[in-house]
């Protein structure tokens, strides 16, 4: 059963006609704490000491790391939210490489080298990419 509060689509509590946030049986201080705690639980804590710098200068470099990242997320070895964020940054890196390549072709000038930090677990991937070149 849905909450009786107008325009609320949340599920009502078993012991009430209202959801947790609209129930008169729950103290406002408890509701406020629940809202605050909910936002804190969405935070992903990352240990910055576990990151290594990787050079992502070619489309091939970015594609290899992105493939590894996708496989780790799908296998449950890496947090999906962090993986999504890193994939987004890798997509931006691809676009920057494309723009750089077009710019070099058109005007023969180069952008400074671009580096990002990725978790140390990608060290092996970076090493393998270097061996194949």
Quick recap:
The protein is mostly helical.
* Range of helix content: 40-55%
How much β-strand is present in the residues?
5-15%
Report on the biggest sheet: 2 strands, antiparallel
| Overall domain count | 2
| Count of DSSP strands | 2
Distance between the termini: 61 Å
SSE-based structural type: mainly alpha
- Report the average pLDDT across residues: 79
Number of helices: 4
Give the low-confidence spans.
none
Mind explaining what this structure looks like?
The protein has about 130 residues and is mainly α. It has 2 domains: about 1-45, no CATH class; about 50-130, no CATH class. Helices cover about 50% and strands about 10% of the residues. It contains 4 helices and 2 strands, in the order H-E-H-H-E-H. The protein has helices at about 30-40, 60-75, 80-105, 125-130, and strands spanning about 50-55, 115-120. It has a two-stranded antiparallel ribbon with strand order 1-2. Helix 2 (about 60-75) packs antiparallel against helix 3. It starts with about 25 loop residues before the first helix and ends with a helix. The relative contact order is 0.13.
Annotate the secondary structure layout.
Elements: H1 28-41, E1 51-55, H2 59-74, H3 80-107, E2 115-119, H4 123-132
Helix pairs in contact: 2-3
Based on the model shown, name its key terms.
133 residues, mainly alpha, 2 domains, two-stranded antiparallel sheet, 4 helices
């Amino acid at each position: 059963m849905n909450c009786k509060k107008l325009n609320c689509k949340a599920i009502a509590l078993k012991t009430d006609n209202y959801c947790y946030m609209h129930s008169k049986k729950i103290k406002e201080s408890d509701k406020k704490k629940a809202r605050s705690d909910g936002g804190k639980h969405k935070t992903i804590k990352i240990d910055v000491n576990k990151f290594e710098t990787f050079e992502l200068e070619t489309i091939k470099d970015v594609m290899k790391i992105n493939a590894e990242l996708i496989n780790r997320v799908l296998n449950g070895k890496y947090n999906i939210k962090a993986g999504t964020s890193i994939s987004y940054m890798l997509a931006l890196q691809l676009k920057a490489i494309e723009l750089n390549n077009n710019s070099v072709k058109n005007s023969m000038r180069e952008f400074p080298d671009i580096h990002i930090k990725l978790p140390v677990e990608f060290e092996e991937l970076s090493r393998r990419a270097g061996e194949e070149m």
